[in-house]
């Protein structure tokens, strides 16, 4: 059964290996360049004690390259669409299942071996891509500490493996239920994108309780170390939070009347006035120390979802007419 | 070795066609006592008919006492069907051939010859009963 | 499922087998028996339920009602059961991008019994390239590959859905000869569906006739034919006759009436001229009742 799986997918495997090799070469070459660029910039700024401004003055690599790397967001989805979708659907649609499932191998064993290899291959491939991206991003991460942010979190570390596993399982389940490849591809694409968006935007910030610090508007206190900013804004005298800042909510200014005339005196004057009226600032964030915990939790969520989808696939395939 | 020819359109069932062809072969001398009949598989491979048909035919022939199966070796001819020796057949076939040529020259077509033959056979049968 | 005492267990036995898809009933109350060693013909117009029946027997579809026993057990996902059955679907299911050799390799690794040499020899004798992608072969060549692969499995029961539809007459003859030879070698029962009554008459000794999703006839061909008769006579009232026997089909002209009946005892009325029924006539008679008027060609290769 492993042999048949290989014979069926070997061209796909060759293409994937070639693409990975090309990607690896690109990232290795540019990554080494960026790393040395960063090192020399660091040495220079340390000597002149200007390292505080380094994040705003140093640009590593080119914008095109960053866009390309960011595009690896699409990798798990593509794996799900091209490797997962047709896995069962093509056998049902073209009728080749009637060849495969009438050899002396049960559908259970067929699914176990075939999906096992494809899921493993997708996870490993997605993991290789994310390993390359993580390594390549290390100078950038050291410089600007943005790897907890949405968009960067999703392409580094171990979560891309979870996404890949989930996407292929999703494609497989969609194909088994819908029995045709094209609808399965569409459903996989749509559901995957929607779910990722929902989880990244609404679930991820809450994996662990966020930390909130409140501070004086005159002397903002940012947390020590890097962090993932969730919301920030002002706290009114009664404790109300204004995440849009001090200016307006629904076009109604919330700056106390008395302070409106202080605009002309400059920002500092206005802030002092606002502080005197009981306003303070706040930050809600997740500290960078929690990065790997979050990576683990999100990966776990997607692995769990993948397992559920694999169970659905098995149930439908074993119980339905083929 | 005898080879069978089956006529799908004939009203005679296939197994009976085989029986008749074996009997005819024995009369004509194509098959002789002690010869081995083709195996079921050989017949089936040549004619694409059901093996049970061949088995049925061979069983009928065995019942008539014309052939006998020898376990592990095949089916062998035991004796000829009652009737004149092979030589008679060829002799009669030759004289019949001459008669048919004469009939054709006289202007009879095949259909007329056939009905003439049928009528003659019926008359001969009636004579025997009488 | 009880077998006749002393007789070997039938290879196929169903009782009241039905299959419904949402609104359509593909098979209704099918009760059939196929004894071992038979080559059984599954005959019926398109849409009568032939493919459905074959898929139910193979375990590719689940019944909506009734019982089905194949090789002594309900069709199920079990390597031993699957090894005993060969199934060939009408659409010649092969992986188009894989070669014939690939399929042979798959079969060798997925089946306990596999005669790879027979497939290779067959392909060689037919000049079919074994290393070329199967999708690039002609329809007839693909059919030959698929048939050879199905036989190589050495099953105890072969279920073939229109296996010779794509073959030319010589190839058809070759295939049927191979099939008959495999049955003659022993241990094989075949159920094949086809439109070509002439072929079926030659090679089959058992018959299952489906029409309007129901089993109309099931039995050994000799027995079934002996149970029917054609009566020709002057046009007259047939109620007395119909009381005793089953009327299958009646063709009435101004002066004459031709009946196909299923006998229930002898026909004693001397006014009737009786004749034996051939298989083709019998099939046409059963399919003529209630079938759409456009249904004609059963002996020529139809277009699917």
Annotation keywords:
heterotrimer; A: 322 residues; alpha+beta; 2 domains; 4-stranded antiparallel beta sheet; two-stranded antiparallel sheet; 11 helices; 6 strands; 9% strand; elongated; C: 304 residues; alpha/beta; Rossmann fold; 6-stranded mixed beta sheet; 14 strands; 31% helix; disordered C terminus
Would you summarize the structure shown here?
Helices cover 59% and strands 6% of the residues of chain B. Chain B has helices at 14-28, 40-47, 51-63, 86-106, 110-129; strands at 67-70, 74-77. In chain C, helix 4 runs antiparallel to helix 5.
Radius of gyration of chain A: 26 Å
Q: What is the β-strand count of chain C?
A: 14
Strand order of the largest sheet of chain C: 6-7-8-4-9-10
Amino-to-carboxy terminus distance of chain A:
19 Å
Largest sheet of chain C: 6 strands, mixed
Helix content range of chain A: 55-70%
User: Largest protein interface?
Assistant: A-C, 25 and 33 residues
- Name the beta content range of chain C: 25-35%
Name the poorly predicted regions of chain A.
Answer: none
The radius of gyration over CA of chain C amounts to: 21 Å
Count of folded domains of chain C: 2
Major beta sheet, strand line-up of chain A: 1-6-2-3
Shape descriptor of chain A reads elongated
Secondary structural class of chain C: alpha/beta
**What is the count of distinct domains of chain A?**
2
CATH homology group of the largest domain in chain C: P-loop containing nucleotide triphosphate hydrolases
Just give the CATH class of the largest domain in chain C. Answer: Alpha Beta
What separation lies between the terminal Cα atoms of chain C?
Answer: 37 Å
H-E string of chain A: HHHHHHHHEEEEEHHEH
Structure, described:
The complex is a heterotrimer of chains A (322), B (130) and C (304). In chain A, helix 4 packs parallel to helix 7 (159-178) and helix 7 packs antiparallel against helix 8 (181-203). Chain A has 322 residues and is an alpha+beta fold. Chain A has a four-stranded antiparallel sheet with strand order 1-6-2-3, with no helix packed on it. The longest helix of chain A is centred in the first third of the chain and has 47 residues, at 2-48. Helices cover 64% and strands 9% of the residues of chain A. Chain A folds into two domains: 66-208 and 291-319, no CATH class; 211-287, no CATH class. The model of chain A has no long low-confidence stretch (mean pLDDT 89). Chain A has eleven helices and six strands. By secondary structure, chain B is mainly alpha-helical. Chain B folds into two domains: 14-77, Arc Repressor Mutant, subunit A (Orthogonal Bundle), CATH 1.10.10; 86-129, no CATH class. Chain B has a two-stranded antiparallel ribbon. In chain B, helix 1 (14-28) packs across helix 3 (51-63). The N and C termini of chain B lie far apart (42 Å). In chain B, 20% of the residues are buried. The mean pLDDT of chain B is 86. Chain C has 304 residues and is an alpha/beta fold. Chain C has two domains: 12-221, 3-Layer(aba) Sandwich (Rossmann fold), CATH 3.40.50.300; 227-288. In chain C, the strands form three sheets. A six-stranded mixed sheet of chain C has the order 6-7-8-4-9-10, with helices on both faces. In chain C, helix 4 (116-125) packs antiparallel against helix 5. The relative contact order of chain C is 0.14. The chains are: A alpha+beta (322), B mainly alpha (130), C alpha/beta (304). Chains in contact: A-C, B-C. The interface between B and C is medium-sized, with 18 and 20 residues.
């Amino acid at each position: 059964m492993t042999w048949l799986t290989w014979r069926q997918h070997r061209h796909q495997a060759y293409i994937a290996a070639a693409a990975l090799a090309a990607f690896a070469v690109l990232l290795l070459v540019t990554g080494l360049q960026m790393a040395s660029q960063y090192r020399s910039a660091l040495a220079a700024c340390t000597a002149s004690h200007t390292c505080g401004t380094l994040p705003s003055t140093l640009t590593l690599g080119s914008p095109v390259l960053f866009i390309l790397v960011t595009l690896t967001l699409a990798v798990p989805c593509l794996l799900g669409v091209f490797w997962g979708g047709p896995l069962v659907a093509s056998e049902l649609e073209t009728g080749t299942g009637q060849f495969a499932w009438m050899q002396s191998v049960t559908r259970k064993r067929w699914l176990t071996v075939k999906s096992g290899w494809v899921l493993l291959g997708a996870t490993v491939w997605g993991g290789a891509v994310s390993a390359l991206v993580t390594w390549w991003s290390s100078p950038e991460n050291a410089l600007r500490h943005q790897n907890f942010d949405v968009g960067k979190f999703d392409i580094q570390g171990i979560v891309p493996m979870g996404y890949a596993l989930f996407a292929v399982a999703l494609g497989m389940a969609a194909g088994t239920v819908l029995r045709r490849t094209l609808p399965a591809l569409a459903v996989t694409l749509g559901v995957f994108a929607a779910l990722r968006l929902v989880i990244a935007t609404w679930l991820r910030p809450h994996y662990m309780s966020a930390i909130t610090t409140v501070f004086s508007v005159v002397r903002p206190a940012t947390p020590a170390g890097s962090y993932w900013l969730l919301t920030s804004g002002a706290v009114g005298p009664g404790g109300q939070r204004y995440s849009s800042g001090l200016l307006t909510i629904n076009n109604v200014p919330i700056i106390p009347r008395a302070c409106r005339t202080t605009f002309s005196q400059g920002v500092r004057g206005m802030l002092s006035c606002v502080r005197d009226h009981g306003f303070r600032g706040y930050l809600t964030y997740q500290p960078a120390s929690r990065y790997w915990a979050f990576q683990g939790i999100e990966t776990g969520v997607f692995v769990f979802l993948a397992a559920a989808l694999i169970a659905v696939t098995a149930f439908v395939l074993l119980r339905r007419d083929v | 070795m005898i080879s069978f020819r089956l006529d799908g359109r004939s009203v005679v069932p296939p197994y009976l066609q085989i029986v008749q062809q074996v009997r005819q072969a024995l009369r004509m001398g194509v098959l002789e006592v002690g010869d081995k009949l083709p195996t079921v598989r050989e017949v089936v491979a040549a004619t694409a008919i059901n093996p049970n048909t061949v088995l049925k035919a061979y069983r009928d022939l065995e019942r008539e006492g014309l052939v006998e199966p020898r376990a592990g070796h095949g089916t062998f001819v035991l004796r000829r069907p009652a009737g004149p020796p092979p030589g008679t057949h060829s002799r009669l076939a030759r004289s019949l051939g001459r008669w048919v040529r004469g009939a054709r020259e006289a202007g009879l077509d095949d259909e007329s010859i056939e009905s003439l033959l049928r009528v003659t056979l019926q008359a001969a049968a009636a004579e025997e009963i009488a | 499922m009880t077998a006749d005492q002393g007789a070997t267990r039938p290879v196929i036995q169903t009782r009241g087998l039905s299959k419904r898809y949402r609104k359509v009933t593909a098979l209704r109350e099918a009760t059939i028996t196929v004894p071992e060693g038979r080559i059984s013909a599954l005959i019926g117009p398109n849409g009568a339920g032939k493919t459905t029946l074959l898929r139910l027997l193979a375990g590719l579809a689940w019944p909506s009602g009734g019982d089905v026993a194949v090789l002594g057990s309900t069709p199920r996902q079990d390597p031993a059961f699957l090894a005993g059955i060969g199934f060939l679907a009408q659409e010649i299911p092969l992986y188009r991008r894989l070669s014939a050799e690939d399929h042979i390799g798959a079969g060798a690794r997925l089946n306990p019994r596999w005669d790879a040499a027979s497939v290779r020899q067959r392909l060689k004798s037919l000049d079919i390239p074994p290393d070329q992608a199967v999708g690039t072969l002609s329809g007839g060549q693909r059919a030959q590959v698929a048939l050879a692969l199905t036989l190589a499995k050495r099953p105890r029961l072969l279920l073939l859905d229109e296996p010779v539809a794509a073959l030319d007459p010589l190839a058809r003859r070759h295939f049927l000869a191979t099939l008959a030879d495999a049955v003659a070698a022993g241990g094989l029962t075949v159920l094949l569906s086809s439109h070509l009554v002439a072929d079926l008459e030659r090679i089959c000794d058992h018959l299952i006739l489906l029409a309007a999703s129901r089993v109309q006839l099931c039995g050994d061909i000799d027995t079934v034919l002996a149970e029917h008769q054609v009566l020709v006579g002057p046009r007259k009232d047939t109620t007395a006759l119909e009381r005793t026997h089953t009327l299958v089909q009646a063709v009435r002209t101004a002066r004459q009436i031709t009946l196909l009946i299923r006998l229930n005892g002898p026909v004693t009325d001397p006014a009737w001229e009786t004749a034996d029924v051939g298989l083709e006539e019998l099939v046409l008679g059963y399919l003529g009742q209630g079938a759409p008027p456009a249904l004609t060609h059963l002996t020529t290769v139809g277009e699917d």
